């Protein structure tokens, strides 16, 4: 079987699906790898490193299995042919996903977002590996936009109070944000609608904000709040948020628009110079004043909505993603041949085309 690593064409996407170390591992298992010239450039991985790892440089789009990072563009879909396997972020729940087009083209597409989050699949969990990057970068962005220090400083020129940071929505990204803000010296607080998260929040040295709402849903995810719960939450958060220097939001409910947690009034209540970093911009944002992809200043508060933060740290983001991809490939390839076992719940879950038979 031949695996092709293509060059990403989406603007700003600097990640690559396989790094040379992962290529060497596949080659060692008897799998041919072909890399499109320049595929690793965004991650500072020149073609030479891929050749040295045993890959051919050539037409990766013609391989049996095409691996990539960002969802394919319309033009990219036309490069695929019937019977080929595609692995990548395919945004299957996104409004403008191309699953229908891939299906019509006869491509067997595996969406990393659809891999069931069971323990056996942890090494393939690209949502988690990239959410870790996003949570970390969100805090660094907040720190650089802030007019204040994160740590407490005692200097000859005076003492500076530590910043207080609130993280709303503590999944993988939120937990990493709490841990990162803590390492920078901030006093941290976490909030989520799944009560089981309280313990994880405390384990990274943060306080738990309890608003008395339990919205634990299926499969470890949150459910959408009722209208009344949402009103209560917004009002309670308005009060709580005014005391924080930094608010980082990561709240998501799969397949739904991002829940509105930070109202315009809450932003207005913050001290000028404070920062909101909203990681939910792609699905509309957790903050009412968020402009997806933009950084705006409202009432003296900076509201930033960076999109695709993992692409801004391409080296490690690609390295972690490559591990996720090789773990999935291991499941799809047996004795050097492509043999997806559709009775395996991971394989069946990840396959997003050909569902009707
Ligand atoms: P996510 O990115 O989908 O969502 C982020 C957080 O937002 C979640 O914690 C969610 O509860 C929270 N949220 C949703 N609506 C909210 C609201 N109205 N107010 C406040 N918070 C709200 O989350 P994720 O990082 O994908 O993680 C989701 C769950 O999956 C977690 O329990 C995580 O531990 C679990 N998980 C399990 C595995 C595994 O076992 N293999 C792997 C990864 C994640």
UniProtKB/TrEMBL annotation:
The record ties this protein, via Pfam families, to:
AlaDh_PNT_C (PF01262), AlaDh_PNT_N (PF05222)
Q: Which InterPro entries match?
A: AlaDH/PNT_N, AlaDH/PNT_NAD(H)-bd, NAD(P)-bd_dom_sf
The top EC class is: translocase
What is the annotated role of this protein in its UniProt record? The transhydrogenation between NADH and NADP is coupled to respiration and ATP hydrolysis and functions as a proton pump across the membrane.
- Keyword match NADP: yes
GO CC annotation: plasma membrane
Q: Which organism is it from?
A: Actinosynnema mirum (strain ATCC 29888 / DSM 43827 / JCM 3225 / NBRC 14064 / NCIMB 13271 / NRRL B-12336 / IMRU 3971 / 101)
Q: Under what name is this protein listed?
A: NAD(P) transhydrogenase subunit alpha part 1
| SMART domains membership | AlaDh_PNT_C, AlaDh_PNT_N
Q: Where is the Alanine dehydrogenase/pyridine nucleotide transhydrogenase NAD(H)-binding domain?
A: 143-305
Entry GO MF terms: NADP binding; proton-translocating NAD(P)+ transhydrogenase activity
- Please state the Enzyme Commission number of this protein: 7.1.1.1
Q: Which GO BP terms apply?
A: NADPH regeneration
Q: Which residues form the Alanine dehydrogenase/pyridine nucleotide transhydrogenase N-terminal domain?
A: 4-134
Q: Which reaction does it catalyse?
A: NAD(+) + NADPH + H(+)(in) = NADH + NADP(+) + H(+)(out)
Cite the entry's keywords alphabetically: NAD, NADP, Nucleotide-binding, Translocase
Q: Domain of life here?
A: Bacteria
